[in-house]
């Protein structure tokens, strides 16, 4: 049975509500929450009828979609799952689903030899792992790090659609340094993920500088239909992030040659997994290696280098060497008795 996008949004919204045990959900609550979700994700502002949600619940309870959701009514008023661990997102794949995924994987494998599809290798392995696990009901062969408790992930779909449709956003954003949220009119160009955290990249309506907002600091947003979107043909993600690690671009600075010494114990890891694509090997001996990278120093680079601890020494430039020395000194002072 095919499911349209709006119905799927309603089903997943109802599912999230019923899994939330810190609140009691009436039919009216579910109607309002589904209406809000459709407005947020699809821009539909006419709301949802009582009859529609009642039919959704009936469908979720049935075998039509394979959900068989154990939805019950408590005190003749409140909707909940009889099984507190149930979720429609945790249903096993059907045999038909597995067959379709297998066919899709075989098709994707045909493109692995092309340079534009190199990044698909990891995706294909993840899909094959999922199929193997479902078919044999065994423990996974691949384990993928994820953090489902990250804030802001609920905004991803709506922000993606805004970028796709070139819509200006009115964002309520509160940085870690701000005491309260600020309203910002924003022209979004890119969604970027780094270190299991998502960011929105674009420009403010008043200003020409590219800025970055963390999704976990976005409280809410709405589309502004009456404001013209600023198209920037000069912004190219690859060149914009070409000479940095992470998402922090210090405007006005140019890339610098950074020389690093890595001890012999950690040298193999750096050689097999370069710190950056600009990495070059300058010297190698029994003590370790000396490499250079061409980057604009930023916060993320400092955190990366600090992660090596005593295994790494910044040789140059002097400014970065002093900065790293000061940070390590302060860190060591915290362990003095």
Explain the overall architecture.
The protein has 10 helices and 11 strands. It has a 5-stranded antiparallel sheet. It has a 4-stranded antiparallel sheet with strand order 9-10-8-11. A hairpin with a 3-residue loop joins strand 1 and strand 2. It has 4 domains: 86 residues, Arc Repressor Mutant, subunit A; 42 residues; 88 residues, SH3 type barrels; 78 residues, Alpha-Beta Plaits (2-Layer Sandwich), CATH 3.30.70.
How is the topology of this model organized?
Elements: H1 5-19, H2 27-42, H3 50-61, E1 71-74, E2 78-81, H4 95-109, H5 120-136, H6 156-164, E3 168-173, E4 182-194, E5 197-204, E6 211-214, E7 218-224, H7 237-240, E8 256-263, H8 267-272, E9 280-285, E10 288-295, H9 299-306, E11 312-316, H10 318-333
Antiparallel strand pairs: 1-2, 3-4, 3-7, 4-5, 5-6, 8-10, 8-11, 9-10
Outline:
The protein is an alpha+beta fold. The chain has helices spanning 5-19, 27-42, 50-61, 95-109, 120-136, 156-164, 237-240, 267-272, 299-306, 318-333, and strands spanning 71-74, 78-81, 168-173, 182-194, 197-204, 211-214, 218-224, 256-263, 280-285, 288-295, 312-316. The longest helix has 17 residues, at 120-136.
